[in-house]
Design goal:
It is a single chain. This protein is of the alpha/beta class. 40% of the residues lie in helices and 18% in strands. The protein has 15 helices and 14 strands. It has helices spanning 20-34, 75-82, 100-111, 126-130, 133-149, 162-167, 210-213, 215-226, 243-252, 270-274, 291-298, 312-318, 329-340, 346-360, 363-378; strands spanning 2-6, 38-45, 49-52, 58-63, 90-95, 116-119, 153-156, 174-176, 200-205, 231-236, 259-262, 279-282, 302-306, 321-324. It has an eight-stranded mixed sheet with strand order 3-4-2-1-5-6-7-8, with helices on both faces. Strands 11-10-9-12-13-14 form a six-stranded parallel sheet, sandwiched between helices. Strand 5 (90-95), helix 3 and strand 6 (116-119) form a beta-alpha-beta unit. Helix 1 (20-34) packs across helix 15 and helix 12 (312-318) crosses helix 14 (346-360). It starts with a strand and ends with a helix.
């Protein structure tokens, strides 16, 4: 069985996996290889290229001058499909949400009777529609829902996310594919440290998207608890257009002496960035899974996470953090105060989360489960 994973911006050499979707595609591909599948990652870049990774999956890039979201597919990719180079008993996974290239590619797959699965990463919650509603709502009715309806399955990061599909009238079968990790990347337990005294460090690590990640809410809540406490907040990641807005909010709240906004650090491992903190914060309005939150669990940190995130069942099962039902200033404030009051428990909480994640979320475990699901779908 040959499985094709399409992610338009996946790096041609499978290097510089600096964003969550690319890291997840790499993990799924590697896990499926370990399960016995043949895997090719399809992407579009400036030039045509082919590359075989150490994990054993192929990356096949097709030249496309369109780097921005566009309905225009690479002519070479279209020819690849036209020439029927995707074999029988193959399956294509379309990765992304509200992306025009997925609509165009799905039309071609239907034309050639090639089965596909849609993996949107994010859940279709009301919150995801609120930002740029004037664009997303018509796109949903004209295109997005048809991609989902004509797929053989929708692949979600958390089974709980299927409720939003059902509420929107999507009856396509749903399967779950969480994010995972490579055991070789996990630090040894005896190298981990916890801060029993001194300045408490809160950390958000990810893209600076204030609405999606709830960073505006986090800053307001932090401002309410920071006064007269030895506590700092670090926000670190690539700017998605909201850095200036966040800096203005920090200045307005008079917390500039306690909050730092840092550029992304791609030279050090995510775990090394996280282990310098005490509490990992992710009060997102909508969230798929959060690879970074999983990294925080593996680094044995305590977490504050919104209930929508796919990592939540693992946090709750291990009691390694606080889950907020709705991301509001009050709920984040209460959660932070609760975690601060449990400082003596942070080490044990963190270790519970780490051990639970290690037991359930290796890429190999996920790959084996996925391969079995794909075989059932194609009745192989």
């Amino acid at each position: 069985m040959h499985i094709y994973l399409y992610l338009k911006h996946f790096p041609a050499l499978a290097d510089k996996l600096n964003d969550g979707p690319s890291r997840t595609i790499d993990g799924w591909a590697s896990g499926l290889i370990m399960a016995g599948a043949k895997v090719t990652v399809l992407c579009e870049n400036k030039n045509n290229s082919e590359f075989m990774t150490e994990a054993g999956y192929q990356v096949k890039c097709f030249a496309n001058p369109e780097t921005q979201p566009s309905f225009k597919l690479s002519p070479e990719l279209k020819k690849y499909l036209d020439d029927r180079l995707i074999a029988n008993n193959s399956l294509v996974i379309l990765n992304g949400i509200f992306h025009p290239s997925l609509y165009s590619l799905s039309r071609l797959l239907i034309k050639y009777n090639i089965p596909y699965i849609v993996s949107p990463f994010d859940p279709y919650t009301p919150a995801i529609f609120k930002k740029k509603l004037y664009l997303k709502l018509p796109y949903w009715y004209l295109m997005e829902r048809f991609i989902l309806q004509q797929a053989i399955a929708v692949q979600v990061l958390d089974f709980r996310h299927k409720q939003w599909l059902h509420q929107l009238g999507i009856k396509t079968p749903v399967l779950e594919a969480p994010c995972g990790f490579y055991p070789k990347d996990v630090e040894l337990e005896n190298t981990l440290n916890w801060h029993k005294e001194g300045t408490i460090k809160l950390l958000f690590l990810g893209r600076l998207d204030a609405y999606n990640k709830g960073l505006d809410i986090l800053l307001d809540a932090f401002a309410e608890i920071a006064e007269n406490r030895n506590i700092n907040l670090i926000i670190q990641g690539p700017d998605w257009g909201d850095k200036n807005k966040l800096e203005y909010q920090i200045a307005k709240l008079s917390i500039a002496d306690k909050v730092s906004i840092l550029k992304p650090d791609y030279n050090n491992s995510v775990s090394s960035l996280i282990e310098n903190s005490d509490i990992f914060c992710l009060p997102s309005r909508f969230e798929g899974f959060s690879q970074v939150a999983l990294e925080a669990m593996l680094t044995a940190r305590v977490l504050l996470v919104s209930e929508i995130a796919g990592i939540v069942p693992y946090i709750q099962a291990s009691d390694c953090g606080i889950v907020i039902k709705e991301p509001t200033v009050e709920s984040v404030k209460v959660a932070l105060l609760t975690l601060l009051g449990r400082r003596s428990e942070w080490r044990e909480m963190g270790l519970r989360g780490r051990r639970y994640a290690i037991a359930h979320l290796t890429w190999q475990q996920i790959g084996v489960r996925l391969f079995e699901e794909y075989q059932k779908l194609l009745k192989i």
